[in-house]
């Protein structure tokens, strides 16, 4: 239980106190041993995990959980900035100043003289043009983070390539490519695991392209499919349990019937 007389409570609540908490956790003289052992690489997976937990709370519509998860996510840049400050690289204030300046610069229709009479699509195009100018002479795909989950990175790589005209003209071409890639997967079934992995990767990449052409966010679509699968399979387990059985004791036709019932109920 926290000691109400601890000097930490003399720091104003809010970002200042959060920064002070982080500094205390990393204090070599009295900090947390676990936190003192961490570095950027060891904390990065937690940063990614917290972002997904925010997305999960949003998907569930749980505002109380969203508040909590946003706090966990906010703690991540504070953590990284503390380690950077210890290394003499930058402070949290530098991070805040940089993103503030970037947002002002990229929204001249709000903070500058550009016309505000633009569609969201035109504003997005302007945003991307400014980012491209910032990248300067670097390649089209430079800066697409290697650490992104593969599905998200595939979508971002494809969007970047499409901006310079490397794209199918319509969904018909993508659908033809999916059929081609599916045939190559079928043909690779007896060619060894490496070849099969290669062809399945190509098929998945092309499916992401189809989602992009249809205006569907592939990560969101797959998260939805995962959620539906979870609900329906749990319904299958519940149905079997009501009969005094487990999935291991049932056969596939029985489970398929329960699955169809769950789907019919809108699960």
From TrEMBL:
Catalytic activity, EC: 3.6.1.8
InterPro entries hit by this protein: MazG-like_dom, NTP-PPase_MazG-like_C, NTP-PPase_MazG-like_N, NTP_PyrPHydrolase_MazG, PRib-ATP_PPHydrolase-like
Keywords assigned by UniProt, alphabetized: Hydrolase
GO biological process: dATP catabolic process; dGTP catabolic process; dTTP catabolic process; dUTP catabolic process; response to stress; TTP catabolic process; UTP catabolic process
Domain of life: Bacteria
Family annotation (Pfam families): MazG, PRA-PH
Family affiliation: Belongs to the nucleoside triphosphate pyrophosphohydrolase family.
Protein name: Nucleoside triphosphate pyrophosphohydrolase
């Amino acid at each position: 239980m926290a000691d109400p007389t601890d000097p930490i409570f003399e720091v104003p609540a809010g970002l200042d106190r959060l920064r002070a908490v982080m500094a205390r956790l990393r204090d070599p003289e009295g900090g947390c041993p676990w936190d003192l052992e961490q570095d950027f690489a060891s904390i990065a997976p937690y940063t990614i995990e917290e972002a997904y937990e925010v997305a999960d709370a949003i998907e569930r519509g749980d505002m109380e959980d969203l508040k909590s998860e946003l706090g966990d996510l906010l703690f991540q840049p504070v953590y990284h900035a503390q380690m950077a400050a210890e290394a003499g690289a930058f402070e949290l204030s530098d991070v805040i100043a940089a993103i503030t300046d970037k947002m002002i610069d990229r929204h001249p229709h709000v903070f500058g003289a550009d016309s505000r009479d633009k569609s969201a699509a035109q504003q997005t195009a302007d945003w991307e043009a400014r980012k491209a100018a910032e990248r300067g002479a670097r390649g089209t795909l430079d800066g697409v983070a290697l650490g992104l989950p593969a599905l998200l990175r595939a979508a971002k790589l494809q969007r970047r390539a499409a901006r310079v005209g490397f794209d199918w003209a319509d969904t018909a071409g993508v659908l033809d490519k999916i059929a081609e890639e599916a045939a190559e997967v079928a043909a690779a079934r007896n060619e060894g695991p490496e070849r099969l992995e290669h062809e399945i990767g190509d098929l998945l990449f092309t499916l992401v392209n189809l989602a992009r052409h249809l205006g569907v966010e592939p990560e969101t679509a797959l998260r939805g499919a995962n959620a539906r699968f979870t609900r329906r399979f749990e319904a299958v387990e519940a149905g079997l349990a009501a009969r005094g059985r487990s999935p291991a004791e049932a056969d596939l036709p029985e489970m398929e019937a329960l699955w169809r019932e769950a789907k019919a109920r809108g699960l």
